[in-house]
Every structure is written in structure tokens, then in C-alpha cells.
Amino acid sequence: MTNMEEIQRNNSYPSNSDKDYEDEKGSGSPVINEFSKVDQISTAQSEMDEKMAEQTEQQRTMTGVKNIIIRKTEIMAEVYDKWYYHAILLFTAFVCGYGYGLDGNTRYIYTGYATSSYAQHSLLSTINVINAVISAASQIVYARLSDVYGRFALFCVSIVLYSVGTIIQSQAYDVQRYAAGSIFYNTGYVGVILVLLLILSDFSSLRWRLVYQFVPTWPFIINTWISGNVTSRANPLKNWSWDIGMWAFIFPLSCVPLLCVMIHMWWLARKTEEWQELSKEKTFYQKHGLKDTIVELFWKIDAMGVFIMTISLGCILVPLTLAGGTKSKWNNSHVIGPFVLGFVLIPILVLWEYKFARDPIIPYKLVKDRGVWASFAISFLIDFIYYMAADYLYTVLIVGVNESVKSATRISSLSTFVSTVGSPIFSLLITRFSRLKPFIICGCGLWMLAMGLLYHYRGGAESHSGIIGALCVWGVGTTLFTYPVNVSVQAATSHEHMATVTALNYTFYRIGSAVGAAVSGAIWTQTLYKQLLKRVGDAALATEAYASPYKFIVTYTWDTPERQAVVQAYRYVQRLETIVALVFCAPLLIFSLCLRDARLTDKVAHDNIAEGEYVDAKDDDPIYEWFKGATTRFRRKSKE
Known about the structure:
Blueprint: H1 2-11, H2 16-25, H3 30-79, H4 83-117, H5 124-149, H6 151-170, H7 175-202, H8 209-214, H9 220-234, H10 236-245, H11 247-269, H12 273-279, H13 284-300, H14 303-322, H15 333-356, H16 364-367, H17 370-390, H18 393-400, H19 405-412, H20 414-430, H21 437-456, H22 464-491, H23 498-536, H24 539-547, H25 549-555, H26 561-583, H27 585-594, H28 622-639
Helix pairs in contact: 1-3, 3-5, 3-11, 4-7, 4-9, 4-10, 4-11, 5-6, 5-7, 5-14, 5-23, 6-7, 6-10, 6-11, 9-10, 9-19, 9-20, 14-15, 14-23, 17-22, 17-23, 17-26, 17-27, 18-19, 20-22, 21-22, 21-26, 21-27, 23-24, 23-26, 24-25
């Protein structure tokens, strides 16, 4: 409307210079000239009105689908606003979490046995990188489509992809096919977790959000202890294929109760007048047809940007895990080529996002706020640090600490167990508070302490108790800040943008796991074999210990000189891994200070955020203000 006002200001009244000019031309009477100008104004205004109306209609149609889904979700939340309905919803979420939680605990172990059976155990980190890259890309797509097609439809698609990937992995007879199955499995896995998280967020207030989001993690209290029994009885050395394959039908069964609840709330909601009114509104597909819908989805999910990001991350990170081994492969074109291509794609991605993307992967208005970019940075570092310290922890426990399969499985899951045990108490405690930031800062500090302990206890029989203690501290810190970081960024945004910020938070989480797995794998593959060869002295023996460690320890028991030489090699490599993890705990603590400290209210989301804005920047932040003031005072004194 600014341009229209300028037209009216400049043309509504003829100036003296205009009259003089018309007189000089002899173009006619002032009345005729006045009518001519009015016609020009009317024509310009009509064209502008038509253009604005077209843009408004297109924008309303594009966002209308989203608004319909959000409003329908709010209607379902209203009809399910009974304590017994919420209890049933939480129970079904618990059952679903039990399914994918136990599968995740054991599949991590089975993947190690699968790669070992291919005589390529060190490619475990390569599988983890592929999983993380695919997961990062999937998060963005799921979040944007969830506001178009709804939670139920995407949840069903996720279950199907989960099962398909599981079947492919179970039947894979080489690492390439196993990695292909991982793509489908992880696409489904992250979809299930994200959609379940969004469902629980839709039905909870900010004050109770942490309780609801913790519920799917509570099965880890049980899974940590029974997963060791499951893996030992399943005999993964011989039966890893079936051990993975059985989850293709076990997990979908665990989702049936939650699907029934979602169908029931839809059945109740569709009887309301509000729902019936919304049902009369046409969707984008109904108005524009299949072709325009596909084009709209292409721009909405930023398909090109997601594709370039995925290829770039994969090309950079995967070669890091492949270049090492029994001999360096950095002079091979199949390693150098993708690595260089990945970096070449980065400026192309930036150019696309800045110039051409209609809905960029990371909206500028979102990422410019410290409460958001600090949350993203913490999410990245969470999984980066985790993979640096724990990527090969199970192998270290089996080979370097002489733990049994059952014991190693339990210990490697101990930090998750401790964090889950503490989560009910902590989440209920948070309902009596209105701030999360102090707990997040404390949790980051405990992570630094845990990394220090893992650095000290990294191999040898004497490390048994030290590793357990470190993982317990790690678990307490995890309770205090990993999930609260997500709730913190949700508390600063509106309901309409909740799915976007949640997905981006988890996208950076997955990117962190990809980078962490890549760096961890690079250190492992490019250092371990050299250390084994140096300490064992036999190339054939070093190659066997490197490629198939679980078979190696059957022949060379704990007290043999060969086994002790391997233990020392493991200690050296794990030292490098934990040093990196410890160093990056420092920025983790710094970013926690930069978070916003939004108040937790009894609403689903804050509703006082201005239109077009993502974050509520008006809420006070005592910790940040104190540090800001202290920094200002320090600068003044230093100048004096």
C-alpha cells in the first residue's frame, strides 16, 4: 500500500509545474487533463489491487492448509481435554517408546556384529554417519509436511518406512546393502520420534511439556537391563540378521494403541461444529489440482535445498570414515572426489537458500534470535560430543575392558538409564518452577565432568567402575538439559511455529551426530590400525584385530600378550576421542548461557508474539542480564 499512497500523493493534485508544462504543449483544458490523470490513477490502482489480491489469495491458500491442520489439532486437543484421555494417550506413547527404544538399544549392538561379519567393523562409524545425514534431512521434511497432512498420516508413513528399512537391513549380505536399509529405517525412525513429540506437545501446556516429552523415554528404565539379556540370548554373533528382522513386525504392533487413540480423538472431534465448518474449507489440492500441489510442496519443503544439504554433508563426512584402515586411501579418487564435491556444494547451497528458496531451511527471522541459535548450537554439540565419547564405547568395553556381552550392553546404555530414571522426578519438579535455564547450565557442567572421567577411565580392567561412574554423571546431566533445551525453544515460539523450531532443533541434533560419527570414525580408522601394528608387531594379527575384533578376542583371551597389546592400542585411540569430546564441552556451556529463559505457562504456546515473528523476545532473562552487566562493568574497569 506504500506505493499506492505515493501514487496518490504525487498525482492526486496537479502541481504548478505540471500545469505550465501542459500549457506549453497546448494539450487541452485543465479539466480534460484532470480527468486523464484520474483515469491513469484508477488504472494503476486497479492493476495494483488485482496484483495484491492475487498475492493475498495465493498466500492465504498456501497458509490456509497449515491453519486448518493447526485448528483441527486444537479441536482434537479440546475434545480430549480429560485427565483419563490424557492418561491413555501417555500410556500409548509409553508403549510406542518401549518398541523403538528396545529396538534402538539392541540394533546399535547388532549393527556392530553385522559390520564385523562383513569383516568391516570399522565401517560402523560410516553407517552412523549415513544414518545421521538422512535423519537430518528427514526432520525438515516431516515438520513441514506435518502441518499440511497432519500428524496421523505422517506417523503411518513413518511406521512403513521403519519396517521396510528393517527388512532390508536384516537381509543385507554386505555393508552397502546394510547402509541402504539404514536410509529407510532412519527415515522412519526419526519420523516416528518427531511426530510423536509433536503430538505430545499439541496436548500439553508449557508447564507440563517436559513431563509429556519424557514419557516415551521412560521404557529405557526397563530396556537398559533387559537389553543385555536380549542380546546375550539372541546370540548376535550368529543370528544378528533375525535379531534385526523381527522388529519389522514387533514395532508396528507397539504403535497400534497410539494409532487407535488418534483415530478415537478424530472420531470425537469430527462431531463438533467447529470441525464441520473447517471441513467445508477447500485444501490447496482441491483448489489447484495435483500439478500445482506438487509444485507447491516442492517449494514448501525446500526440496532442492534439502537435497543439496544432504549430498553436501554426505560427501564431506562419509569419506572421513572411509579414508583410513589398514592403509590410507586419501590418494584414491573415489575418496577425494566426493570430499571436494561436498565443499563445492556449500556455496551453492548458500546461494540457493539466499536467492531462490521461497521457504529457506533456516528462516532468517528465526535464526537471528539468540534463544534459537543457541539452542541449535547446543543440539548440535549434544550428539557431536556423544558420538566422540561413545561411538565405539561398546567395542572398547568388550575388547579393552573385558566385559561380557550382557555387561557391555547394559553399561553402554547406563547414561540413558540414569537420565530416564531421573526424568519423572525432574519433570514433575519443573511444573513447580517457571524457568529452565539454570538447570540447563548445570547439566552442561555435569557433561564436562563426565567427559573428564571418561578420559581418565578409558581401558583396562581397572576402568570398569570408573566408566560406570562417568556414565552415571553423564546421565544426570542429560536429564537436566537435553530435553529441556527443546522445551526452552518451544516456550519462546507460537503454536504455529512450534513444529518448525522443533524440527530444526532436531535437525541440528542429527547433523551433530553425523559430524561426531564422522570425526570419531576418522580418528578410529586412521589411528587404530597403526597403533595395533606398532604394539602387536604382526601385520596379519593386527589386520584381524582391526577388521573383526569380536572374533579376535575369542582366540586371544584377556591374559594373552596379544590381547593386552590390543588393549593399549584401544586406550590410545579412546584417549584422542575423549579429548575432543572434553574440549567441545566448553562451548556447550557458553551457549547455554546465551539461551532465552522463557517462562513456562499453562498454555500450549505463547500467544502474544507479533505476526511475522518467531520468538518472544520480551520475556526477561535474569542470568543473561547479569552476565551482560558483569561484562560491561569489566570493560569499563579495563578502560579506566
